[in-house]
Design brief:
alpha+beta; Alpha-Beta Plaits; single chain; two-stranded antiparallel sheet; four-stranded antiparallel beta sheet; 6 strands; 16% helix
Length: 91
């Protein structure tokens, strides 16, 4: 994986802004199940520690797909807020 592929190389798991959403992967919770990748392959990739990181191509996914990817995470490690800072998932 090239660090240039990640939205924020200093914070590869976010929080990062993707369109109107802010997405953050809690690296302490992430277990590398990769269900997020199955749902939103342009948004996530697992790094060398098997933790989800957020790709630049995430802007190509719909907001609904990104929210669905968070809902698919078996440990709710993906936190999503809207443009007003209101938490969308998990509630």
């Amino acid at each position: 994986m090239d660090p240039a592929d990640v939205i924020d190389p200093k914070n590869p798991s976010g929080p990062v802004k993707i369109n109107k959403l802010t997405v953050h992967v809690d690296r302490d919770l992430c277990i590398g199940a990769a269900t997020c990748i199955a749902v939103a392959p342009k948004t996530y990739l697992l790094d060398s520690e098997a933790k989800a990181i957020i790709l630049k191509t995430a802007v190509e996914e719909t907001s609904e797909t990104i929210i669905d990817s968070a809902k698919a995470c078996p440990v709710a490690a993906i936190i999503i807020t809207d443009e007003n800072g209101q938490r969308i998932f998990p509630n």
